[in-house]
Amino acid sequence: MLSALAHVEAMETLEVVHQTEFRHRRLSGRPLVIIPLTMAGEAGAPLAAMVGTAKRDMTLLVVPQPRNRDQRFTFAAELGQIVMRYIDSYRQDRRGDGERSHYSDAPQILVPNHGGIKALADLGRMCRFRSASGPYAVPDVVPEFGMWLTFLVDTSEQAGTSMLMPVTAMLSEHWATGQSTLEDQNLASLMAWIAPPDGLSVEQALADAENPDICPPAGPATSPEFDNRHLAPAIQRFDAAHTLGDPHDLATAQAELRDLVAEQVKPTWRMMWTAISLLRSVPEAPRTAKRFERDCVSFTSYSDYRDAGGFPQRKRDTAIGAAQRLSRLERALADFEADMAFDDPFVLADRRSAGEAFAGTVEESVPGRMVTTAKNRRVPRPYVTLRTDDPVRLAAGTKLISPSMPAGHKAVIASVHPDGDTTLVTVEVTGGMGRSRTPNPGTVPEPGQRLAYLPDPGWRPTPVFPASDHTPWTHSPGPDEPDTDSAVPEDAAAEEWGHED
Amino acid sequence: MSDPLDALEKSISTLRRAIRDASAAGDTERASELRAQLRRAERAWDALLDADEPAPAPPRPAPEAAPAARGAQLPAREHVHRALMLLGTPAAPKLIVGVHEAFFPGELSASKLSSLRRDEERSYRSSPGARPYYLPPALAHDLLTPVRALVTISTWTLEQRIIGPHSPRVDFLTGAIRIAEAVHTAAQSAGNGPSPEALRLLWRFAVNIPDAMPKSASGHESALDPEQVIEAARAELDVHADADRAVRAEASRRARKSLSDDQQLFGAPSQGVTYLRARA
Amino acid sequence: MRTDDTTAPDPAAAANVATTAILADLADTRHKAVVVDSPPGAGKSTLVIRAAQELTAGGERPIIVAQTNNQVDDLIENLTEKHPDIPVGRLSATGYSPPPALVGLANTTVGRTLDDLAGCQIIVGTAAKWATVRDSTFGWAILDESYQMRSDMLLQIVERFDRGLFVGDPGQLDPFTIVGTERWIGLPHDPTQNGVSVMLEHNPGIPVHRLPVSWRLPSSAAPTVNEAFYPFTGFTAGTDHGTRALGFDTAGFGSTDLDETLTMAFATGWALHELKRRHVPRTDTETIQTAANLAGRLLERGAVATCERNPDGRPLTARDIAIGVVHRDQADLVRTALTRTGHPDAPDVAVDTANRLQGREFEVVIVVHPLSGRRDATAFHLETGRLCVLASRHRQACIVVAREGIADLLDSHPSMDPVHLSVPAKFPDGWEANQVMLAKLSQHRVAA
Amino acid sequence: MKAPVDDRLAALRGSAKRRPYNARSLAALENNPRCTLRALLDASGSDKAAIAEHAGYPSPFGQSAFAFARGNAFEAMVKDNGCAELLRVLRETLKLTLPEVAYLDLNDVGGDGSNETRRDRTAEVLLQAAQGTGDGTLFDHPMLYLEVGGQEAFLEPDLVAFRIDGRFYIVEIKSFPIIDGQADPAQVRSATTQACAYVIALRALLEEAGIGPEAVSDTVVLVAPKDFTNRPTAAFVDARKQVSALTRQLARLERISDLVDLLPEGLTFDLDIDKDDKRPRRPAEELAEALEQVPATYRPDCLNHCEMAYYCRARARAEASLDVLGPAVREQLGGIDTVTMALGLARGQLTPTADQSDMAAALRHAARLRAELTGEVGGAA
User: Fold this and answer.
1) Does D380 fall in a domain?
2) What pTM was computed for the model?
3) Are D167 and D244 within one domain?
4) Is D30 touching C (CB cutoff 8 A)?
5) CB contact under 8 A, C418 and D189
6) CA D356 to CA D345: how far, in whole Å?
7) Shortest CA gap B117–chain D (Å)
8) ipTM score over 0.90, yes or no
9) Residue D272 belongs to what domain range?
C-alpha cells in the first residue's frame, strides 16, 4: 500500500518519490557497462555493443553485416576479450584458506534493461557450445565468454545478487515514478522522472524520452524508423562496397555505419553513467555486504570450475539440476525480501501497511517468565505486549525477527487482539537473550519502548536430492528411451548460422 | 557545469530536439542538416573524452573478391541453361544460382535472372525459333497457366515442364540425384574435387531426404556420401513417381490438344480459370 | 491409460469395482506406480487406509506420505480407528505436539527418527519430514494428496520407496512457486509441476484409476462440480435426492436477505448471495461481514441436517460450517467479522483460504467468490482449482457471496495468458469453469 | 435492427475507406475487450493510426525492414525446392507419411491473385481434400474467408497441411527462433491467436459442407528457425483456449449494437481527408471532442499493441486516472479511480463514502507511516 501510495503521489506532483531509504543492490566501484544492440527479426544477431568501465573509457563494437556468421563471431570474440579481461581482473585477490577461500571482489555488469540481459543470455547461449577447432571454428575466447555470460545471466535470476543487473531495475527499486512498471523499463522515461535534463520539466522530458530522435531506444532493439531510414541503406552500402572490394569505399561505408550506430547508442551510454552516479548517491543497505559475500563465493566457485575446464552449462536443466535451482531461487527470494524489510524502514512500512509486519509501543512486559523445554531445561520466555495502529494480519504462532532489537532477537506471536482502532499483540521472546537463566540486559523490550517485528524467513534445511547421475525413475525416461539431453549437444558444431540468403 | 563535456552533451540534446522538431514539421532538408551537425558534435564528444583514446579500429580488410574465372564471359542465359541441364527439372532462380555457383565458374545473380525471364517470351514471340532454346516458365497441371516461379528449357518435353501436386517433391528428389551425381563425378575426377559450395548444396538437399545422411552424422557436409544420397532419393522417388507421371502425362495430353504452340511454351492465359470453374 | 469401467448403476457397486481394480494393480508387481484420481469426497482416505491395510496384510511395511501435519493426524486417527491391531508410527519434527485425539492411542508411536518407530508396521509423515530421512527404503509408499506435492519434493523422497500409490484430486489447486521463471516450461521434469504429472510423463503405461462416486457432495452439487471442473471424467453423487436435507429450528424474522439466502440454500443446496455491483478491494468489509453474518444467522436460527449418517437429523454446530476465501488477509478479516456477529459459537466456524481447505469437509460452506468486486480477473483468481476447492467442500449446501458483475467481468476478460510451445493447455479452463459455476449459481440468486 | 447499426458504424468511419479485418486485427480483439473506443473503431473499420496521429498522438508502431525481410526470406527458404525443409519438419511433427507430399500453390489462380478467386479455389481444393477426392497435402497460402460482424474478412495462413487421417493443420511460419525448445511467449501468443482466426475460418468453410469442427486441429504447428541457425524446426502449440477465447470475442462483436446505441447522435471520427494533398481537413479539436465522447479503458500494455494507446494515456493522465499506473497499483487501491480521490482520502481532506471507508482507513494509515518516515529521512525526493 505504501509503495502504491508513493506512485500515486509521484503522479500528482510530477516528481519521483523515494520508496526505500537504501540502495539494496551493491554498486561496484568499477562496474562494466554493456549496451547490447541486436538486429530486428534475426535470432540473437548482435548489431553492436558499447562497453566500458567508465564514461570516458568506452569501446564501440559494430557488426557491419549482422547476417554474416563470421562477422558475428568476430564481434563475439572482441566483446569477449573485453569482458574476460574485466572478469579476470577479479580473479586475482583471494582471501581465506583452502576450500573456503574466495575472491575478495566480484565483477558487476550493468545493462540498461531486462532486454539487455536477454540479449546477453542469447549471446551466451550462442557462444558457449562453440568449438575453437574443427569445422566452424571460432576464436578461443568465444566459448569461454559464452559460459561466463551464461553464468552471469543465471545469477541475475536469483534475488539479491548483483553481478549482472539492469539499471532500470535498480533505479525503480528506489524511486517511485508516476508511470507504470512497463514504462519504468524504459531507461529514458525513468530518468526523465528522476533527473530531467536541466531546464526541462518532467513532462517535457517524458515526451522526449519516447521520441526516438531525441532518445533512441536503449536497446537491444533499435527503432524501426532508424532501421528503415538509416541503418538499412548504410548496411546496403557496406555490402556493395564489400562486393566491389574497393578498400576506400569499404572504409567509408564502415565508418558511416559506426557513426550511425554510435549516434544511436551514445545517449543511452551517457544516461547509464548519470544513472550510476545517481545510484551512488543513495546509501547502501547494511545487509548488502553480506549478500555480496555470497556473490563472491559463487563467483569463486564458478571461476574454479572454469579453471578446472568444466563443461558448458546445459541447454536445459536436468530434473535434479532444476530442483536444486528452484530451491536456491526460492530461498534467495525469501531471504532478500526479509533482508530488505529488516534493513529499510520504508520497505518495512510497506509490509506493515499490508499487515505483514507491525510496529508499536510496548505496553506490558513479563521479563521473568520461564518455561520448561522438552529437554527439561528451564529457560526464560518473556512475554511482551505491544499496542499497534497497524492492521496486523499475522496469526498466533508466527515466528518474528526485529530490526529494532539487538541481533539474534527472536520472538513468536502468542496472541493478537483487536482493541478498538488498535491491536494488542503479545509475543513470546524466544531468542537473543544470552545463555543465562535471566535475559541479558536490553534483550527484552521494556514498556514504553517502540519496536517493530516482521516474520522470520527462518532457517530451512537445504533439500537433499538424489545424486545427479542417479535420476530416479519418476523423473527420468525409462531405459529404452534415450536421454535427450547430454551435457554438450551433439550437433554443437552443426549449429551453423545457415545460408545467408 | 564548466566541464566542456557537459556543455557538449547539452548541445547534443538541443540538436536532437531540433531534429525532432524539424522532422515533425516535415522539413527534411533542415533535419538532415541538423543530423550532420549532430554527427560533428558527437565526434567532438569522442575527441574530448580522452585525447589518448585509440582511434576507432581500422576497418577490417574485406575478404578478397574471387578472381574472375574463365567462363565468366558467357551470357547469363547460357549459365542458366547449363545449370538447368544439370538439374534436369524445372527450378526456381535461387536454386539455379545455387547450382551455378556450386559447379560452374562465372557470375550469375538472381536479379539478372529475373530480367532474363521477362525477355524470353518477348523474344520468342517476335521471332519464334530464332534461338536454339528458350527459358519458359513451368506450366500448372490443372489450368495450364504459367508457374512463373519456376524456369524450364523449351527443348524439354511438356511432361517435364508441367507441375502437378507431386512434382515439386519429385523434382526436388530428381535434382538431389543429379547434384549427387555431379558431386560424385567431381570427386572421382583428377581435379580439386567438389567445391565447398557443391558439398553445401548437396548437404542442403540431403538433410531433407529420409536416410540420406550418414548414420553417425557429425552434422556437416564433408561427411556426406553422394551414393547414399542417390539411393535414399531414389527410394523416396519410387513412392511418388507413378502418381506424378500420371498427372503430368494427362495434363500434357490436354495441353497438346487445347493450346497453341506458343501457349504450350509460355502457358495458357488466365482465362483458363473459367474452364476450371466449369470443370469443378 | 484409463482402465475403469464405471457404468455400474449402483454407486456403491461402482465404487467397489474401482477399488477392486486398484487393489489388483497394487498386487501386480509389474507396475512401479499406481495412480488414483479422486474427485472431491470420493473416499480417498478410505482407499488410502484400505490399501495400507492390504499391503500390511501382504507382508509389506508401507509408508504414507501426506502433505500437512493435519492430514497426517487425520490419517492416523482413521487408521487406528479402523485397524486398532496395526502398530502405526508417526514420523514428526521436533516441536510437534500431537492433537488430543492422538494422545491416548495405544497402537500409535510418535517418533523423530525411523529408529524410534522400529516396531511400527505403517509409518506416516509429511513429505517435508520424509525428505529428511536418509538411507532407508521401503517397498511401498502411499502418497496422499499427491497432486499438491511438487515434483521437486517427490524427488527428495522417491528414494525411500520402490513403488508408489499416488492418490489425489487432480481438480484442486496446483502447487506453485513464488519464483517467476519460465526456464523450465515445457520440460517433462519441470520442478514446479505436481509430482504425479511428472511421474506419469516419464512412465507411460502406469495404470490411472478414478474413483467414480463422490460420497461428500450432495446430488445437488455433484453434476455441476463434475461439469465445471472434471469435464472429461464423470462421477456421480453417492446419495440420492432427498437423502440429504437441511431444516431450520426456528422461523425466520428480521434480517430478510440473509434468511432468504439461507432458505434458498437449504431448499436447493446452492445459493448466490449477490451484493450490489461495486469495484472493491479484496478486503471489502461489506462482503466479508456478509459472509460472517450468514454463518452467524445460520447458527442463530439453528439448523438440523439429515443425511445417510444421521437419518433422524442432527443439529448443526459451528464446526459443521466453513467460510472459504481466496486471500489470507480475507480469512483474518472474516475471523474478526465472526466475532462481531455476536453469536457465541461463531468464532468456531472454520475460516480459511482455498489452499488450506483442500481435503477438508463440512456440512455447509460459505464462499467469498474469488472474482467478487474485482475490476479484472487475473490468472490467480481464475484458477480452476481455487473455485473447485471452495465449491466442493460441502455435504449439504454451498452459499456463495459475491458482488454483482462477475458475468460482465468474465465477458470482457482479455485472454492475455502467455502461450508456450509444446505445452498442453491446462484444462478445464478457468474461464469456462467459472462460466459453468456462474450459470448454475444464477439459478439460485438472491439479490441483497 | 442490423441495418441501422451498420449505418451508424459507417457514419462513425465517415468518408474513409473501410479497413477490412485481417488475422492481425481479429487477434487484437483479445487484447482489451473492455475498451469501448477500440471496439467501435475496429467495428467501424476506422483507421486508428490516422485518427491517433490527427489527434496529436502518432503511433510509434512500425516494422523494421530487417524483420520484414527476414520473415519473408525465412518463409521462402522453408518452402524452397518443393517445400523440402518444410516436409522434413512436418514429417517429424505431424508424422506425415512418405507419399504425403502433394503441393498446391494457392498464391494465385492461373495468375489471378484476387481475393475472391483465391477464396473460391481454396474452398474447392480444401473440400476435395476433406471429402477424400483431392490429393493435396500442402496448401500454400490458401485464402480463407470469414464473416465478422457482417463484414467480410479474408484470411491467409502461411500454409495448411492435410494429413492422411483426415485432419487439417494450420502451419504458421515465423522467423523468431525456437531456442532449446522455447520461444518468446509473447510472439508465440500473437502467432497463435492469428492461427486461431484461420482455424475458425477453416472450420466455418467445412461446416458449410457438413464437415464437423474436428476436421481442423486446434493444435497449431509453428515452424521457426532452430536455435541460432537458419534451419527450421517445428513445435506444436495447443491453441484450444485461444480458439475458444477468439470465438467468444467474435461473438461479442455481434453485440456491437449495444455500444452503438449509447453513442450521441451524429458522432463521427471522420478525418475528411483531402483528395489531393491527403491531409485531414477536419479540425483536430473537433476530432478530439468526438473521441472524448466515447469511453476508453486504458491499460499500460495497450502501449504495446493499440494505435490509440498514446492518446488514451494522455486522456487518462488528464483525468488523473489510476489506470496510468497499471494494474498492480489499481489492484491495491480497489474501488478508487483517481489520484485526486486516493490522495484526498489519504490526507484526510476528503470524507470517504461508506463504500470507501476501508480503503480510506488503509490509505490514511499508509500516509501516516510515510509521513513518519519522510520526516525521519528528510522529506520525499
Assistant:
1) no
2) 0.90
3) yes
4) yes
5) yes
6) 9
7) 16
8) no
9) 5-61+256-319
